[in-house]
Structures are given as structure tokens and as C-alpha cells.
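Entry type: protein chain
Record version: 2
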Amino acid sequence: MAIEIRPLTKHIGGEVSGIDIRRPPSREEVAAIEAGMDRYAVLVCRSPGITDEQQLAFTLQFGPIQPAEGTNVTKPHERRLDVKFSDVSNVAKSGDLLERANRRRMFSLANRLWHSDASYRAIPAKYSLLSGRIVPTSGGNTEFADMRAAYDALDAATKAQVEDLVCEHSLLYSRAQIGITEYTEEERRMFTPVLQRLVRVHPVTGRKSLYLASHIGNIVGWPQPEALAFIRDLTEHATQPEFVYSHKWQTGDLVIWDNRQTMHRVRRFDDLNQVRDVRRTTTKGDGPTVAQQAA
């Protein structure tokens, strides 16, 4: 059975059928998934379930893994999962739900802000693959915004203005938006800001997209208040309902998205009483969007 992809919205998202994600895909299936990603930017694969080993094997067909070091405040002895996974659940290593004041929980609340995975790395991420092992009965949807359609909808003057802008990205900036400002010196070094272009060009399709994220804390050469106000305006524009797909999770789902073409966020749910065990693997990008020496 050949892979088929059904569009989910006008701009973004497709649901995949004709593939078993529990086994490594064939070359033809990899090519079909990559072509689908280039077109839809987000793909949904329904599945009865997937193991960590199966998810890793599937992910590796699309590029090398980007480990989770440097992406959070979780200490090595606190990790529940292999470092090849980003643990974006609300479950502690003990298996209990994270308590309200848990530092990892506090840090993860910023995932409810619009962002692009690993834009705070000098070489940002390409694909993210998130599997839903246990999902809440209500809330916890993941929303995706099409940054290509958002760019296309800009007026000519704004397109000219954003074309050559470079932004500073850091986890320090996104977490400051929800009041997290206390870090060790080691953490501050780990989260040193990096530079990213505000407009990216897709290497296959040639389409331009806005490269926005809550991780942005400044625009190079701009006063910070003006920069942040401008980024907020662009984010409001880019996340209008017409550009957004909202994914309601079912147990076993695997959702793949292209961080070069999308932003996403998780929606609020009762994380103190309901388990949301979702596990992300991420593939490395091809290179930096801009030289880092001026960071």
C-alpha cells in the first residue's frame, strides 16, 4: 500500500496513511514523507503505539539525532529518558506527576508560548517527531502555525523590512516571559544567545518563511523595546487562525514537523492531575542560518 497524505487545513498539515511507523521506512517511504513535509510542513501518523527504540529507528531515517543536552534545566541524574529524547512530559523519573513548584515543570511551561524547537542553537533543528504515549482526556493540544503562509501574507513594505534582519535567540528570553530569571552560571553559559535570520529560504522548495520564536530577545542593531514590539506584531500576524492547525492527540500518534517552516505551542491542560507523556526526537539542521561571530 502506497503512502497517501490527506490535507488537514488550507495551508498546513497532512494526515498520513499507508505506513507502519513501528518499523524503519523504506527509501520510497522516506522520500514520500520528505516530500509531504516539504508541502504540508506537519504530518500526522496515527498508530496503535510506538516504543522508544522504534521511534529512534524511524527518526534516524531523516537525519542525525540532536540530543537533549542544553535544552532544559534537567540534571543528568534526573533524566527519565535517554538523552536522545527530549522529555516534554509532566512525569518525573519516579513515575509521579511533577509537583507544582518543580523547576523542570516551571521551565516547561514556556512550551505554551509559540516557538520553534532549538532555534536557540547555532545550528537549529530540522524535523521534530513527537509521539503521544499517554495523552490527557482534555486540553494539551499542539498548535502549529505555517510560517510560509504568514510570510506570503505580509505586505511588500514589511517583506522588504524583514528580509535581512538577524535576531538573537536564547532559552533565557523565552523563560523570562513567564518570570523565570534565576540560573546557575553554568546554565547561563549553556543558554548563551545565538543569531538567526528572521527570513529563511527552504532548500528544496525555495519558499520563504518567517523564523519566529518566543526565544527571540532582540534584533541586531535595534533598540530592544522596538525589536520586541516588532516581533510581537509579527507573531500575532503569523498565528492568525487561518495559518494554524490544532492537533488533538490520540494515544499512539506520531506528529512530525519542520522547524524551518513552522512555529508551535502546547495548549494548557490539567498537568497536576493528568498525565501527558509525550516524547520528542529531533533531527539536526544542515547548518547555521547566519555566522555566529557577532553574537
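Comment: The chain has one domain: 4-284.
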